[in-house]
């Protein structure tokens, strides 16, 4: 084993205008969107200086990083820190763990919708499945909106003008900052390529495929898997999928297309249009006759081009012709991938649950006529009406914008007003309780089973901060619970089907204030969040203190 290194990165957060004809400001890291790749080896220390050159506050969240022992470095405003004011800076220091494909994004208001995101790769000293590929590529897909997210889109979304809660519809799909048919991936002589796909969208989920090639999945979120071969897979918001391709497996139909061997093939991101609240396709023009440099219509099929001869020319076949070509009928098109098996099952222990939490997800119009997201009938707000609704503002959790939950855990642990777990109907295990405002107290080392019961007719990708979780089963694949005992797949985002459910399990071994929320940016804004207040006593017992740099941020609010 080599020594842990320290990896330094400086990120300037500022506006850019990458698409001249649009005129929409994009929030960028180091004048680029996606921002620069942050790369380290597992166990390294990352020191990331974030300099806010915007005229509004910002933070960055390091999606997928455990943050064990650094609960104030998660970047989640309200839970772990105050936002970084305009013109100020903050340095994030944390350990690069776990290994795998992660990403960073803004975690204040809807800034990541406007472009504030980038990839993270944490490498292992010996990468599982390293022998199957010679080259790596990264594809970061996102929704593009013509209008700014907070001032225009979410202010309309969360208004009495939108009682049905219609999410803002994306105007385009963007991969690695490029619109459809403008992103070329040259193979450059390699025949076996590893791809890391990151869904950085605010709303859309996609079916991913590459024409004529099986996809051998080797990592899901940050869990390495035994190679698992599919013809296509589904990736929901904030999820990551790694796979390799082997060009020697290219369906010969593609090398015979037209009169000469094809020089390139399409990589496809097909947005799942049933996710959209209205028939977005009615606004479509045929995807192969794009006439504008800048999209003025939505196209649910994004095409990137895998350039086999590295000359960056388009395929010799039409994208629509593929339906008539023979596909890999023997391989599954997998929409949950729970059948993918963890690569390393040595010492892979899935403990039995000690606690339980049933969460009912729904959307409903509140008393002011605005459609909001609810978990167990609570819509989460840290801008807070707490002072109005609480008879005694000195008891219980206070508004979190000026005093993040983590600081409240440290500074006044006796007045949090969070009830302890108790046995109640529905489970023989003690049920995690909340204070009625979306804060749930979890004891140290509790093994918590969460049953996510989605009563909404949309699919929701739920993400846990500060830990990953086993996916026991979902309504798409209930058999997984019995099939994969002691070897459930670990991820940090679970996709919960429309009117379906998911059962997940996590260990509360990382004291802190950790958000659990739907990763659709609009749904977060609508309050589909809760926060686990994990082991405040243990946090104090470990001698944890808040740094002055954190208090300085809060004084700037
Ligand atoms: Cu959602």
Note down, in words, how this protein is organized.
This protein has about 550 residues and is mainly β. It folds into three domains: about 5-125, Sandwich (Immunoglobulin-like), CATH 2.60.40; about 130-335, Cupredoxins -  blue copper proteins (Immunoglobulin-like); about 355-555, Sandwich (Immunoglobulin-like), CATH 2.60.40.420. Helix content is about 10%, strand content about 35%. The protein has eight helices and 33 strands. It has a six-stranded mixed beta sheet, with no helix packed on it. A six-stranded mixed beta sheet has the order 11-19-18-13-16-20, with no helix packed on it. It has a six-stranded mixed beta sheet with strand order 22-21-26-31-28-29, with no helix packed on it. A hairpin with a 2-residue loop joins strand 14 (about 215-220) and strand 15 (about 225-230). The longest helix is centred in the N-terminal third of the chain and has 9 residues, at about 150-155. Mean pLDDT is about 90; it is low at about 285-295. The structure holds copper (II) ion.
